[in-house]
Fold this protein.
Amino acid sequence: FGIQCYGFLYDQNSHYCIPTGGISAFTPRPNETEGDFYFLGGCKAYVDFKPYNYIRYADITFQQDYFTARRTCECLDARLMAADTVDKWVWFLGFTGNSYTYWLGLDDLKEENNFVWADGQTIKPEIKEQIFTKGKPDGDGDCVFRVTFTSFMDDADCNRNLTSICEQLQFATSVCN
């Protein structure tokens, strides 16, 4: 094929396979009517990861609820971003600009008011104080997002449709060059 083939769509009705060049944050993922998508190239199938400090980040620009965003990241051998240090938060603000709201890998789904990052760490009080909007989180939601045009986070209903950021350790189990 004339493109690098990172995956294919399989149509169960026609039994045809259609090669693809990978998936991108700038286009929605294939839907059921197009067929089932299969990765061939592991982490290379997703072409939009950018490296920073031993972690690779992908800006998922189509909107989805928190649970779908989390599954999208997991499908890419990644997780929703854990901005668990001030340095990482400042880098994130520069990486994303300020025109979108983003789901972050932080929620209190297991225990109310106990916010845990996607990497399993509980949010540190000093981080919580610095990067949440004043008086937040206030319990009006279980999932955390970055507030548009600010440098702060807030909690919201997990069913809201927002963009998201996935992070993948460069030394993940997949072979990534």
Observations:
- The domain at 48-169 is CATH 3.10.100.10 (Mannose-Binding Protein A; Chain A).
- The helical segments are 66-75, 86-96, 125-131.
- Residues 172-177 have pLDDT under 50 and may be disordered.
